[in-house]
Amino acid sequence: MQKSKISKIQNETKKLLIYLNKEYLRLHAAYENYFWISYMGDHSIDKKKDTALKELDTFKSNHKLFDQVKILIENNKLTKEDKEKLNAWTKFFNCYQTPKHLNILKDKISKLETKMGKVATTRKEGYIDPHSNKFVEASSHKMRGMLRTEKDENLRKAFFLGGEKLAYSNIKNYVKYVGLLNQYAIGLGFADFYEYKIFTEEGMTKNELFKIFDHLYKKTKFAFTSIRKLEKKIPGLRKPWNFSYMMAGDFTMEEDQYFPFEEALIRWGKSFAALGIDFRGSSINLDLLDRKGKYSNGFCHWPVPIHYKDGKRITGLSNFTCNVVYGQVGSAVPGYNTLFHEGGHAAHLLNSEQTEVCLNHEYPPMSTAWAETHSMFLDTLYSSYEWRSRYAKNQKGEIYPFELFKRKIERLSILRPLGLNSIMAICNFEKIVYEEKKLTTDKVIKAAKKIWKKYQDYSEDSLRILTVPHIYSWSSTCSYHGYGLAELALTQWREYFYDKYGYIVDNPKVGEEMARVWKLGASKNFKDFVKIMTGKKLSANAWLKNTTKSLPQILKLAKDRALRLKKVPQLNGPIKLNAKIRMLSGKKNITDNSKSFEDMASKYAVWLKTKRIK
Ligand SMILES: [Zn+2]
Question: Which of 82, 148, 285, 548 is a good FRET partner for 29, with 20 to 30 A between their CA atoms?
Fold first, then answer.
């Protein structure tokens, strides 16, 4: 009697788990496929995308399923393994429970989001040429790139103003949007949407977060004084259309030769392979060039996350993208950055070994900070002098010179302490607008200007914050702190690796340790994960120590690390990432790695030549 009762409960649990995994995977994949098509520029399916999202949201907020999980979990006849699986779903459903009356609101929010997305991708982007007085069409990416390298100040100012204009294109919608999101959060018992977001994603309070950020601001704001001093030698430095150009413009141009975009794939593949990164048989689609209508920010999504069928691990599919303007000076570097960053996201979740599919994607219960820790850790790899001393070569085969690194650090080291300021600015801006009881477009503009001024200290106001795409989308709004927390965690991780192994680039031990935590998917919260990965509690110490190093210290360290790397053998033989990779441009399939990674990279390079801007 007793025995059959146990097996009945166990059967019921098994059945429910199979259903949850299968149904969630189906709904997730349906939505993510439309999402990719829409974000790559075909908006004809937007209605279908919205419907798919609604179905997905209905599943996520399903009370009945949640109740079933809760009832089963209380039964003490369950195996430990099944209990853990049910726990994962409890965590998942907890993130999305929506009272019925809020479902209509959620639907309204996603429609408004789609509307804003359409405005942003179909608006006329460009600037008024100060010489001809004519409007010249140019994407926001192109303008931002040219802002860094254009010699003519009048033109730079025109690009800046062209970018500023874009801040207004969704401003009325944005006010409405913030109101709806707040209404949603209040409906769930939170004070505002920011509080709701940080609690569900990171298990943190606003207080905890902004205490860390305020501490960092206070500890690093001395750098503004150094910049104001420098302005006396470089008049006009603090004008927003001058700052990056005058600080780093010539470096952008000088460095460009060491980052030919046609070499990006090979260098990325080699570095990942040398770290021992293994995609474990999964598929990856890459769409790397800027196009009209395409979403204007890099991202990585997983239409098919890792999942299990009959106890067997099934490989996933991940798509990632960026907006390289091929042939534009300085545009390849962000392209390299994307391969490491989004490629890092892809590697992270395609390595998961969690049986429950809800722990294997980027949405809650996954922590944004945790996800970003891995992608940003991998982009610090490529941006380090250590990596450059081995991989960054120009057409003549000359390696990125230490002398260039030295000059760059000498000029830019005064900015290092401010490295988190643009992130903290966006978070503080969102904190203000979501806490505002009666938000208006004027208040949004005022807050955007005030905060940008506080965190950038430019001599003119700017609405740059309003052109950051993250603030217009449910999944990324009020989540920008994830990048800041990740920066702290990854610096702590780098310190840990250097202490333990003495080097990071091309170190398979580093890859091994990464894979060990990647297996865990979203099974823990951010703070616990940091402890597991570095053996220490999350703190800002490593970050502050690193960014406030003296100039001689930075130079010596870079030299030592490059020297250490010389002793490490380079990857020999073919690049093997154990992934099926396709290179796409919208719906066009350009090439793939079915023959070899090297073959794909060379075919892609040939195709790139046809896309070079004049
Ligand atoms: Zn990211």
Answer: 82
Where does a domain end: 74, 97, 120? Answer: 97
Report how far residue 75's alpha carbon sits from residue 72's, in angstroms, rounded to the nearest whole number. 5
Say if residues 471 and 430 touch (Cβ distance below 8 Å).
Answer: yes
Half-sphere exposure of 438 (CA within 13 A, CB side): 0
Q: Which of 76, 97, 118 is the last residue of a domain?
A: 97
Tell me the CA–centroid distance for residue 104 and ligand 1, in Å: 30
Residues in the chain: 614
Query: How far apart, in whole angstroms, are the C-alpha atoms of residue 123 and residue 126?
Result: 10
Q: How far is the CA of 289 from the centre of ligand 1 (A)?
A: 18
Position 567: which residue type?
A: K
From ligand 1's centre to the CA of 486, what distance in Å? 10
- Measure 337 CA to ligand 1 centroid, in angstroms: 11
Give, in order, the Cα–Cα distances in Å from 55 to each of 52, 62, 96, 403, 456: 5, 10, 13, 57, 42
Indicate whether 309 and 448 sit together in one domain: yes
d(CA 246, CA 234): 8
Containing structural domain, residue 329: 101-614
The pTM of the whole model exceeds 0.70: yes
Which string of b and e fits 542-564 if b means at least 16 CB within 10 Å? bbbebbebeeeebbeebeebbeb
Peptide bond before 365: cis, by omega within 30 degrees of 0?
yes
The residues, any chain, with a CB within 8 Å of residue 236's CB and separated by 6 or more, are: 153, 242, 246
492 plus 548 within the same structural domain: yes
For residue 476, report the distance from its CA to the centre of ligand 1, in Å. Answer: 10
| Span from the CA of 154 to the centroid of ligand 1 (angstroms) | 34
CB 188 within 8 A of CB 196: yes
Same domain assignment for residues 196 and 327? yes
Domain containing 277 — which CATH number? 1.10.1370.30
Nearest to 224 by CA among 428, 457, 550: 457
Per-residue pLDDT tens for 206-219?
999 999 999 999 99
Residue 1 banded pLDDT, cuts 50, 70, 90: very low
Query: 533 Cβ partners below 8 Å, 6+ apart?
Result: 489, 493, 496, 513, 517
Q: Give yes or no for a contact between 60 and 31, defined as CB atoms under 8 angstroms apart.
A: no
> Are residues 301 and 439 located together in one domain of the fold?
yes
Question: Of 374, 343, 352, 345, nearest to 269 (Cα)?
Answer: 343
- How many domains does one find in the chain? 2
Question: Which tens digits make up the pLDDT trace of 245-285?
Answer: 888 877 888 999 999 999 999 999 999 999 999 999 999 99
Based on the fold, state whether residues 222 and 357 are members of the same structural domain: yes
Residue 119 shares a structural domain with residue 87? no
Residues 113, 46: one domain? no
Cβ 232 vs Cβ 516: under 8 Å:
no
Same domain as 81, residue 214: no
